[in-house]
């Protein structure tokens, strides 16, 4: 009794030790708030005072909540001894817990069993939630044991600071601003005192609370296990009841099938198929339930382990013991490839189940009126059927249809459960996948800078794993195990062997084809980009056998790693060795003599020869080291085996350093060739990049030997991934430039052929020499390729390089992930877990939007040029058609870019449609002409009443359409003046398009001959001259008319038609000149202008003749 009184006294002292200071109440705060709102304070001071009062009210509420938590904790401590005795009794004799629950009635009908199962599942979920909460409380107590003193010291320091600030605050009751500040500080002090009292109470009874929480946790685990057992028993009972019901109905249907009339037997056969489908569905549902339970247990265990590891890292920091534990956990994480494969299969089954459920619902809808179906079936029988027979058939039809309806209803219920189980399993697997990924990321971040054991250069460390790996008995066991596995699963090994045989058979042919395709690039007539693609395929065939063997065998073994865990190291080693085998093998085959790099990509000869020579010895060494590193990384192996892997990694890094030195040192053949031929930044800044590149593998090797093996391996993997990414990017760039080279080369060759054909036709007309000039094969310089296309390639490769670096290094450089953590004071609505939520916009979102905007702008400016160069010129389109497609592509790229930018910034259509509507109304009134021209521009591009290159007349202006923009169209007249016309004028006004559907145009030439000439002969000369001209069309034929008797001449008019407007003026000039010449030769006079002057002769005329004085003097 005295102990309890002492305990209560201690609790009272703990609860009142920091309660000496008087705390404000809500009434004081509210009264002061009203006083401040009605005062004459300045707006700035009033706002500050109200903010302090709001803080005071918030501190006060938090202090009250803390005091309530303290009272509950005091009651928990008071009841703890009794509660511990009760829990200890239950834990010692768990059968008492089972007897205290209501017994299960497994003999009840199916419907009642299902109700019992639902109630038990709800109780189980409630207990599981309580268990998770209790485990979190226990983890918090363990964390408080390590950090509680620091938290109490921090609170005491904050409390002292608040006390000093209160002492320094002057006493002035008449100043509402100071009163508000004092209330805020007093409320905060009250909250800090309550927090401190709670923590001290928790610290003083930490052992008791930890013991009680652990006991409650154990009791909840016992209850959860009992609930799990009861749920499993009920689930089995329900499954047995359902199976019994289905089997009974299936037997009844089968019996009815034997005794039914022949007319009814097809219905019973279909019913039997439905009941058999139901049996299969029940089996599938039972299998899904087992998988759900197993996966739930794995997920729970993984979450608990994750929480324990996180807590251990936070409490103990980082040392070698923690590093060993984290490394073991990382290597033992499950492989997620099976989840991806099974997820795809399950989604297919889910779709099939949904379709089947719809079919069942449709079949049930057809069975709503059974009487009508019976009458319809009886109507198909012969009319002379006896009434007794008809009555028997009616009864059997009713029984069959009711049996079918029962089967369909049961199927509908089971498919509903089946779909629910599939969805639950899919959600669980997704949750498990995310949990494994989060666990892996956590372990990787922790292991990145934690030192592991230093490598000991002793005999056991270096030779022990080799002796173990080369043990004859172990090798025999593994070979025997592989043979058994191959007999059990012969498909993949057989397919792999067949593929290797095919590749080995094709290699000799690929080598010959590669040489032939290289020779084909020498001639423009045989040079094709398709030859380059074929050469690339041949190169891959030559490099494929070894990587295919390693990857194929590794994937096959990893698929059986769950049933054969001894083969997991071998699978890991084969898969890791396949990477350098593929990468270095492809690079070496690219550089083979007469290969792709030499004949097609035009790499420097010294670069090809150096890589071909040095990769011959580096490739097998890299494969061997990678295999050793991979095979020693299994969690089942000893630390000594891991030491062998670290040594192999270090040796591989040292060998990489040797390779870099041999290839790129200052006097290497590659550097000498670059310096002699084309000095670039590689030569000028050799010291800036060479020595860091040389130091990186050396530092990684030293880090691995010093204990930072995981960090070294992780960074080396990132470095090599970066290297191969840029090599692949360079290969793609060279292939695209090769395509541009071939395309431009053929275009120029075709232009030369066209010019030669024109020259041949001209010489034939002039009866010149018949020998044709030789055609020279042009060598195209890359600098003369399409500048727009090359600029687009440069931009594309730059963006791809930046994106690749971001993708490779984003989880290794914290600064890159920092963009995702910096939030802006802007929220956007996004789907989180399938539910729309308001989330803050991050700096990464804004950065993505800016980069997408830049990319959209660059693509809109340059991609249409590539489209025209690569695609449109091969289509039967005119220049105007190609321009229209390029413009539409530019608008489409802009629209897609705006959509992507809005998606990156979280802007949805539902949020901005009102703004778009308002802007539309505003633009409709304020910018009516601009909008009209914009819409008219779109109509011009789609309807195409005018095209680039068309000759149009609008108003008094005639010219060629040079550009069609979104607002206006530019016309270049014959004086080389550019007239900018709004697009609206072409839609709402009238204009003439001389070349819309037909480029034929008419010229009119007037000829005036003198009176007295032979008009028929003149008309014949004009007709012959027009028909002889090559630009004048024969259909429609030239028309010559004698139009009128003029004042000065007889007027003859020639109306001739030309095929195009290109040579209109020169043709008119030629016709004028030739007609004038022919008429002169025929003696037909071109009339001169005449004027008769009549003088008045009624009076005398005075005539005076004067001579020039200068003439007379001379």
UniProtKB/TrEMBL annotation:
Residues 1003-1086 form the Mechanosensitive ion channel MscS C-terminal domain. Pfam families: MS_channel_1st, MS_channel_2nd, MS_channel_3rd, MscS_porin, MscS_TM. It is a multi-pass membrane protein. It is found in: Cell membrane. Residues 930-995 form the Mechanosensitive ion channel MscS domain. The chain crosses the membrane at residues 535-557, 611-631, 643-664, 688-711, 723-741, 792-809, 883-909, 915-942. Its main location: membrane. The keyword Oxidoreductase does not apply. Residues 495-824 form the Mechanosensitive ion channel inner membrane domain. GO terms for cellular component: plasma membrane. Residues 1-19 form the signal peptide. SUPFAM superfamilies: Mechanosensitive channel protein MscS (YggB), C-terminal domain (SSF82689), Mechanosensitive channel protein MscS (YggB), transmembrane region (SSF82861), Sm-like ribonucleoproteins (SSF50182). GO terms for molecular function: mechanosensitive monoatomic ion channel activity. It comes from the Bacteria. Keywords: Cell membrane, Coiled coil, Membrane, Signal, Transmembrane, Transmembrane helix. Residues 110-172, 278-312, 360-414 form a coiled coil. Belongs to the MscS (TC 1.A.23) family. This is Potassium-dependent mechanosensitive channel.
């Amino acid at each position: 009794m005295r102990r309890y009184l002492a305990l209560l006294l201690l609790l009272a002292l703990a609860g009142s030790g920091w309660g000496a200071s008087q705390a404000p109440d809500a009434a004081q705060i509210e009264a002061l708030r009203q006083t401040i709102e009605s005062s004459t304070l300045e707006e700035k001071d009033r706002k500050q005072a109200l903010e302090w009062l709001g803080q005071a009210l918030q501190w006060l509420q938090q202090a009250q909540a803390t005091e309530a938590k303290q009272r509950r904790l005091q009651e928990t401590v008071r009841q703890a001894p009794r509660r511990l005795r009760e829990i200890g009794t239950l834990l010692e004799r768990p059968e008492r817990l089972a007897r205290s629950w209501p017994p299960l009635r497994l003999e009840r009908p199916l419907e009642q069993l299902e109700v019992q199962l639902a109630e038990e599942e709800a109780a189980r979920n409630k207990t599981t939630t309580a268990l998770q909460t209790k485990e979190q409380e226990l983890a918090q107590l363990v964390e408080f044991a390590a950090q509680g003193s620091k938290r109490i010291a921090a609170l005491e320091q904050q409390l002292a600071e608040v006390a000093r600030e209160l002492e320094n605050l002057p006493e002035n009751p008449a100043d509402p601003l100071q009163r508000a500040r004092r209330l805020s500080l007093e409320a905060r002090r009250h909250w800090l005192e309550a927090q401190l009292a709670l923590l001290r109470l928790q610290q003083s009874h930490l052992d008791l609370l930890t013991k009680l929480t652990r006991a409650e946790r154990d009791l909840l685990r016992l209850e959860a296990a009992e609930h799990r057992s009861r749920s499993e028993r009920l689930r089995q009972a329900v499954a047995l009841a359902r199976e019994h019901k289905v089997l009974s109905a299936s037997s009844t249907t089968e019996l009815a099938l034997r005794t039914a009339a022949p007319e009814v037997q097809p219905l019973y056969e279909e019913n039997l198929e439905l009941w058999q489908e139901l049996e299969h569905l029940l089996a599938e549902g039972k299998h899904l339930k087992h998988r759900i339970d197993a996966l739930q247990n794995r997920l729970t265990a993984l979450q608990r382990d994750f929480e324990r590891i996180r807590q251990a890292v936070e409490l103990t920091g980082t040392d070698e013991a923690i590093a060993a534990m984290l490394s073991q956990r990382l290597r033992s994480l499950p492989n997620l490839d099976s989840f991806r494969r099974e997820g795809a299969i399950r989604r297919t089954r889910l779709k099939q189940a949904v379709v089947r459920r719809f079919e069942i619902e449709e079949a049930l809808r057809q069975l709503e009126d059974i009487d009508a179906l019976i009458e319809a079936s009886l109507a198909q029988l012969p009319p002379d059927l006896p009434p007794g027979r008809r009555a028997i058939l009616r009864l059997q039809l009713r029984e069959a249809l009711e049996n079918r309806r029962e089967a369909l209803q049961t199927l509908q219920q089971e498919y509903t459960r089946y779909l629910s189980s599939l969805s639950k399993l899919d959600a669980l697997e997704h949750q498990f996948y995310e949990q494994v990924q989060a666990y892996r990321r956590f372990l990787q971040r922790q292991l990145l800078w934690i030192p592991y054991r230093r490598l000991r250069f002793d005999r056991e460390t270096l030779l022990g794993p080799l002796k173990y790996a080369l043990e004859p008995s172990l090798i025999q066991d593994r070979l025997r195990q592989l043979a058994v596995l191959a007999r059990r699963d012969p498909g993949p090994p057989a397919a792999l062997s067949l593929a290797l045989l095919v590749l080995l058979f094709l290699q000799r042919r690929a080598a010959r084809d590669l040489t032939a395709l290289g020779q084909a690039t020498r001639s423009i007539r045989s040079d094709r980009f398709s030859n380059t693609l074929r050469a690339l395929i041949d190169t891959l065939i030559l490099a494929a056998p070894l990587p295919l063997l390693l990857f194929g065998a590794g994937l096959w073994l990893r698929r059986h790693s769950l049933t054969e865990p001894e083969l997991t190291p071998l699978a890991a080693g084969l898969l890791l060795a396949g990477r350098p085998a593929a990468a270095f093998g492809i690079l070496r085959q690219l550089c083979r003599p007469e290969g792709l790099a030499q004949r097609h990509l035009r790499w420097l000869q010294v670069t090809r020869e150096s890589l071909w020579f040095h990769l011959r010895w580096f490739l097998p060494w890299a494969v061997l080291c990678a295999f050793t590193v991979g095979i020693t990384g299994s969690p089942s192996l000893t630390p000594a085996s891991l030491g062998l892997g670290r040594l192999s990694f270090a040796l591989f890094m040292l060998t990489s350093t040797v390779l870099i030195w041999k290839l790129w040192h200052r006097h290497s053949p590659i550097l000498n060739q670059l310096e002699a031929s084309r000095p670039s930044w590689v030569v000028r800044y050799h010291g800036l990049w060479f020595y860091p590149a040389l130091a990186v593998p050396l530092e990684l090797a030293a880090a691995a030997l010093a204990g930072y093996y995981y960090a070294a391996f992780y960074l080396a993997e990132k470095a090599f991934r970066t290297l191969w990414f840029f090599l692949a990017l360079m290969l793609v760039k060279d292939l695209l430039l090769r395509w541009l080279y071939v395309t431009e080369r053929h275009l120029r060759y075709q232009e030369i052929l066209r010019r030669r054909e024109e020259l041949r036709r001209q010489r034939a007309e002039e009866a010149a020499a018949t020998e044709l000039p030789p055609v020279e094969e042009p060598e195209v310089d890359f600098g003369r390729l399409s500048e727009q296309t090359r600029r687009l390639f440069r931009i594309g490769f730059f963006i791809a390089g930046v994106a690749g670096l971001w993708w490779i290094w984003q989880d290794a450089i914290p600064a890159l992930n920092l963009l995702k953590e910096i939030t802006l004071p802007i929220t956007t609505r996004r789907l989180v877990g399938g539910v729309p939520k308001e989330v803050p916009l991050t700096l990464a979102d804004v950065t993505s939007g800016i980069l997408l905007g830049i990319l959209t702008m660059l693509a809109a400016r340059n991609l249409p040029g590539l489209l025209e160069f690569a695609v449109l010129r091969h289509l039967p389109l005119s220049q105007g058609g190609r321009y229209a497609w390029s413009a539409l592509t530019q608008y489409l790229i802009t629209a897609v870019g705006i959509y992507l930018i809005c998606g990156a910034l979280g802007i949805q259509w539902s949020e901005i449609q009102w703004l778009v509507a308002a802007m539309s109304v505003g633009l409709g009134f304020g910018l009516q002409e601009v909008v009209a021209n914009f819409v008219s521009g779109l109509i011009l591009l789609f309807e195409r009443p005018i095209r680039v290159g068309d000759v149009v007349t609008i108003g008094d202006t005639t010219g060629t359409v040079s550009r069609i923009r979104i607002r206006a169209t530019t016309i270049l007249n014959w004086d080389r003046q550019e007239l900018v016309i709004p697009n609206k004028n072409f839609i709402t006004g009238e204009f003439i398009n001389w070349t819309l559907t037909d480029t034929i145009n008419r010229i009119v030439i007037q000829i005036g001959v003198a009176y007295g000439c032979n008009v028929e002969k003149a008309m014949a000369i004009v007709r012959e001259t027009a028909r002889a001209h090559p630009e004048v069309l024969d259909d429609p034929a030239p028309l010559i008319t004698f139009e009128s008797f003029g004042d000065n001449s007889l007027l003859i008019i020639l109306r001739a038609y030309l095929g195009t407007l290109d040579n209109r003026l020169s043709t008119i000039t030629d016709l004028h000149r030739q007609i004038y010449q022919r008429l002169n030769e025929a003696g037909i006079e071109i009339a001169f202008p005449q004027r008769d002057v009549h003088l008045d002769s009624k009076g005398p005329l005075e005539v005076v003749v004067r001579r020039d004085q200068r003439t007379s003097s001379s």
